[in-house]
Hints:
Elements: H1 20-40, E1 49-55, E2 64-70, H2 108-128, H3 139-166, H4 168-178, H5 202-223, H6 229-267, H7 280-296, H8 304-311, E3 333-340, E4 343-350, H9 355-380, H10 415-425, H11 429-438, E5 469-470
Antiparallel strand pairs: 1-2, 1-5, 3-4
Helix pairs in contact: 1-3, 2-3, 2-4, 3-4, 3-6, 5-6, 5-7, 5-9, 6-9
The structure holds fe (ii) ion (FE2) (2 copies).
Amino acid sequence: MARVDYTERIPNNVSLAENRRLLRALEEWQPRYLDWWREMGPEGFQARDVYLRTAISVDPQGWAHFDWVKMPDYRWGIFLAEPERGRTIAFGDNKGAPAWQDVPGEHRGTLRRLIVTQGDTEPASVEQQRHLGRTTPSLYDLRNLFQVNVEEGRHLWAMVYLLHAHFGRDGREEADALLQRRSGDSDKPRILGAFNERTPDWLSFFMFSFFTDRDGKYQLAALAESGFDPLSRTCRFMLTEEAHHMFVGEAGISRVVQKTCELMREHKTAEVSRYGGIDLAMIQRYLNFHFSVSLDLFGSEISTNAANFYTAGLKGRFEETKKTDDHLLREATYPVTCAEGGRIKVAEEPALTALNERLRDDYVADCQRGVDRWNAVIKRHGLDAELRLPHRGFHRAIGNFADLHVSPDGRVVSAAEWEAQRAAWLPTPADQAHVASLMTPVVEPGKFAGWIAPPARGINSQPVEFEYVKLSVRAGEEGRHG
Ligand SMILES: [Fe+2]
Ligand SMILES: [Fe+2]
């Protein structure tokens, strides 16, 4: 059962062939998905062979198969992690009851909303990144971008499967709406703010993959604990794919930092922009931006919605089953950062309503580990500099700090001071223009743009100079895939 049948039109490990109605509904959705992919997926390159991995089983070991694929021919499918025999709900009022195989009627609307909100982020990121192929720093990076893109497409499939299989007509309508919203569109925007921001350049892309995709990892991890078993199993397999997206972001920034350090040493200056690099101060400003907009994705610090999701058994904590408390949290408290009278302080709040903040804390700790590894690169070059996560109150649009001006080092400042410092704290038009000026494509195998170091190793044991995307087109193929 772990292996996936690729002879079917929709590869799957959920016995789709045995449910004719569902199969037919998904087969009707499939061409609409492909239309969306052609219209909103990576611009150009659709007719090129890309060295991509495809899921061939859901075993944690060895699920991936690498081959040359034209993106529109990618075998998007439906893969759920293996069922856990006798799985019970691990938290909330239904703790200890058998996990639900069908949607409980009283939680139908809430579950659908959770699935739609998650599902909406997947095509959104493909849309945000669709122009990046034109300015790739290397073939290696181009492949990684497309790998992330096709897998976000598959994550959309994962959520659409749940909507079609478990939510009847309104599920089907939601599945269609997922193909109709557009990132950044004023009439039909994507649901969450960060997914309507532009991803205009590769520095932003790496920051997005590190910070914003990582929000996705934590949301999926919380949904993987769900008492609704199909959602849990879907998210568990999505997390194995997500690990590569985290890698692309972390390693991408690490390679930018490395190149910057090399230029700093070579030219004995921190201002490496004039040598075709990206100053650490500029990297810090991009980091400040992407971290702060990603923090907003976790929602308000105090949230009765979050409490209700948990109590109902729909959305757990990160690593819920590894925790040793009562998994009810009715009496427990949790420390929450807030501001009072112009000072930032920590207050104990009921743990149930503080669950967003708790998930955000797990996320922040994970981000910090990545920043530490970037700083180790700087240290290895013997340079006295450091990247830092800004304070969680900095540049926030949602929650306790939304109406305040907080500096990156965590002081509540006046609006005037904030404005005076903005150019030191957030990417400036000059930063953006400089980064944009570096975005000239490099597509010779083994060659890399001057602002980023090559990776330590290639993908799937291939050499770094491997031809990860075949740009040469044989006669008659051009234009076949739009
Ligand atoms: Fe995803
Ligand atoms: Fe992702």
